[in-house]
Amino acid sequence: MKGVILRINPTVRLVDLSHEVSPQNIREGAYIIGSAYRYFPADAVHLVVVDPGVGSGRRGVALHTEHGFFVAPDNGVLSLVLAQEPVQQAVELAMPKYWLNPVSATFHGRDIFAPVAAYISLGVPLASFGPVAKDIKTFTPPAPCVQSDGSIIGEIVYIDRFGNLVTNLSLPADTVQSKLKIQVGERYIQSVQHTFASVDAGELVAYVGSNQTLEIAVRDGNACETLDVSIGDKVTLFRDCEA
Amino acid sequence: MKGVILRINPTVRLVDLSHEVSPQNIREGAYIIGSAYRYFPADAVHLVVVDPGVGSGRRGVALHTEHGFFVAPDNGVLSLVLAQEPVQQAVELAMPKYWLNPVSATFHGRDIFAPVAAYISLGVPLASFGPVAKDIKTFTPPAPCVQSDGSIIGEIVYIDRFGNLVTNLSLPADTVQSKLKIQVGERYIQSVQHTFASVDAGELVAYVGSNQTLEIAVRDGNACETLDVSIGDKVTLFRDCEA
Amino acid sequence: MKGVILRINPTVRLVDLSHEVSPQNIREGAYIIGSAYRYFPADAVHLVVVDPGVGSGRRGVALHTEHGFFVAPDNGVLSLVLAQEPVQQAVELAMPKYWLNPVSATFHGRDIFAPVAAYISLGVPLASFGPVAKDIKTFTPPAPCVQSDGSIIGEIVYIDRFGNLVTNLSLPADTVQSKLKIQVGERYIQSVQHTFASVDAGELVAYVGSNQTLEIAVRDGNACETLDVSIGDKVTLFRDCEA
After folding, report:
1. Looking at chain B, which residue has its C-alpha nearest residue C43?
2. Predicted confidence band at C7 (pLDDT cuts at 50, 70, 90)?
3. Which chains touch C (3 or more CB pairs under 8 A)?
4. Mutate which: C103, C106, C110, vs A, most A CBs within 10 A
């Protein structure tokens, strides 16, 4: 893919964001690009290929937002970008003149997405790549659920390489409270701390992470292994409890 | 290695192709560079260091082909490039003035190959680095073997990070046939599909991969783990069978 | 982090040195940057984030040496750089105008270290980032210990991705001796060879590595797995023994 891009635009700046998405894991890819894109320059072209349906009927798309361009299979991998960014323009990739031909059945990253991204970086207008794309596929990011007792049930949406658990429970960035209780599996955490360094090594800790949601870690350890949890597992937040 | 290159040519564009070759696995490295080089610009300098014999008598070489320059230990790692590309010029690395001195016994990537690649990127002619190199070492890529019954026995030549099995059985890119049968281990696959997305999740599937050879995958799964196979294992193709 | 840097300095050259440091392993990070920095151009800005204490009171620092700039948490990760390089200037990171605000509690790499490194690459003087930093935290790199019988006890300070064991036992680069004996665990190695290629496949071998210290490998194998050792384990060198 890098070679294809460089042959089209020899002066482009290539930046590796992640090559660590678990195979076929669209949601994990969606989380990574959704967390990172806004930190890049507004003229960045984000090439996002997690593509288990390659070669099937799924479309390829290119989008333009205030925070950059996105080129990806239309399989939901841009869901978390679209949940945050209004789309200024969206097209379906339908013009083989911008592809590497013949197109293989299993590597559209190399044959379609990479060359299209390269042409966008050269300034080719989005409309050149195909017709307007409507109904970009998105999955609904899991939403926390407020219970009748005031507790909120959320879930683990991402696990980073340190084993830290990222949840979908939004909290203000400066939340430090001793009156919040968190449940994950059968374990309870009795407070929200400033950071994992607020507790002793080996201890479980909850804190507001760098994307303004509740995270759970083991200081100097691996919470994913300690708690034996997975993406999708429930995390419950008991607010303002007095016990 | 990157620092050494940048000190010699501060304006060079560094591109990481792979840092994932299994330790000492020359054939795996040969496959990766052999599959990728032709997609890069023709003035690219490919620095290919899989080097279990570092510090022994094995030579270092630099080659020029129509599709770029290659700098590597002369241990067969360029076999699949040489099987595809006529060599325009080949030299043995013999001029210490282009090396980092003193040269360590175990890191010629840093001390010899990286600086030579950097000087090539600056336009230093290949002849400057040493005498003409003859008899570049290559291993013969495994060739499929046609049996008396018309079946063809090939083998697995690469396994990608998804666990997909790449074989050495060449097929036209658009092959989709229900009359081909494939055997791998004790399992049979009854057709060649367009892509893995042509079957249901969890199913075994054969298809023509992005390098025009037969590949075997498990849709949304890992064929290497499911079939418990390794590089070198046999894959048999029964052509035009009627059963 | 890369996006943050590029928004501040769109023309900077980003170079990935390593993303493979074990979580929270300051000493491993210290070894990697300590081994590599001097090969980079002298105007390089080295951004070194291994940061288990993020969000606690630990400072961030920026240093200038003859071999480049370093931006890092003040937690010892620059110990091996400081053991080799006189510091020309050192400042504490104290000026939020050079940070991404609001600063998260857990990702100072993105919010503090990356933007500061980017501003340094633009030529902003170190003094702009905060007051002079004294007493930069360092751990004392483990020193070999000479015994009364003349043997020297060192230890494993790093294990590379090939499973090769790097020790802190310095030896001249061209040491090849049959009268040195090395003990690691309960195994003995009877000589120091030029390189791992000097022995047969599968054999244990000691040699002087690319950082001029004794290393132990299994040719075409993995010494770490074969010997079941870890960083910190003892390695004893019996010099000039006659037995």
Report:
1. B7
2. very high
3. A, B
4. C106
**Which residues make beta-bridge pairs with C73?**
C60
DSSP 8-state symbol, B139: P
Residues 6+ apart with CB under 8 A from B119: B8, B9, B98, B128, B129
Q: Model confidence over A151-166: pLDDT tens digits?
A: 999 999 999 999 999 9
At B240, the pLDDT band (50, 70, 90 cuts) reads low
Distance of CA B106 to the CA centre of its chain: 23
Q: Which residues contact C243 (CB under 8 A, 6 or more apart)?
A: C181
Q: What are phi and psi of C51, to 5 degrees?
A: -145, 60
Q: How confident is the model at residue C191 (pLDDT cuts 50, 70, 90)?
A: confident
- Read off the amino acid at residue A211: N
Are the C-beta atoms of residues A180 and A243 closer than 8 Å to each other? no
Q: Using CB atoms, which chains have 3+ pairs under 8 A with B? A: A, C
- Alpha carbon C120 to chain centroid, angstroms: 22
Question: What's the sign of the alpha-carbon dihedral B29, B218, A2, C162?
Answer: negative
What does the buried/exposed string (b/e) look like for B109-126 if buried means 16 or more CB atoms within 10 Å of the residue's CB?
Answer: bbbbbbbbbbbbbeeeeb
Beta strands in chain C (DSSP E): 45-47, 60-65, 68-73, 87-92, 145-146, 152-159, 165-170, 181-184, 187-189, 192-193, 204-208, 213-218, 234-238
- The tens digit of pLDDT for each residue in B134-164 reads 999 999 888 899 999 889 999 999 999 999 9
Asked if A41 and C6 come within 8 Å (Cβ–Cβ), the reply is yes
Q: What is the ipTM of this complex?
A: 0.92
Residue whose pair of structure tokens reads 């590309």 in the numeric block? B85
The pLDDT of residue B243 is 40
Which of C37, C170, C195, C215 is most worth mutating to test chain B (most B CB atoms within 10 A of its CB)? C195
How many angstroms from the chain centroid is the CA of residue A28?
A: 6
Of the candidates A3, A53, A107, the beta carbon closest to that of B197 is on: A53
Phi, psi of B120 (to 5 degrees): -60, -40
Alpha-carbon torsion, ordered C115, A62, B222, A104, to 10 deg? -130
CB A233 within 8 A of CB A167: no
How many angstroms separate the CA atoms of C56 and B205, rounded? 52
Compute the average pLDDT of residues C141-149. Answer: 89
pLDDT in tens, C14-49: 999 999 899 999 999 999 999 999 999 999 999 999
Nearest-by-Cβ selection for C41 from B7, B56, B106 = B7
The per-residue DSSP string of B174-219 comes to T--BSS-EEEETTEEE--EES-GGGS-TT-EEEEE-TTSEEEEEET
> What 8-state DSSP symbol labels residue C132?
B
Q: Model confidence over A32-63: pLDDT tens digits?
A: 999 999 999 999 999 999 999 898 889 999 99
In terms of Cβ atoms closer than 10 Å to its own Cβ (0-12, 13-18, 19+), residue A5 is buried
Cα separation, B118 vs B12, whole angstroms:
8
Nearest to A63 by CA among A38, A46, A42, A40: A46
Flag if A24 and B208 touch (Cβ within 8 Å): no
Residue type, C130: G
Half-sphere exposure of C78 (CA within 13 A, CB side): 26
The predicted model scores a pTM of: 0.93
Q: Which residues contact B184 (CB under 8 A, 6 or more apart)?
A: B156, B165, B216, B227, B229, B233, B234, B235, B236
Residues 6+ apart with CB under 8 A from C209: B104, B106, B107, C164, C166, C215
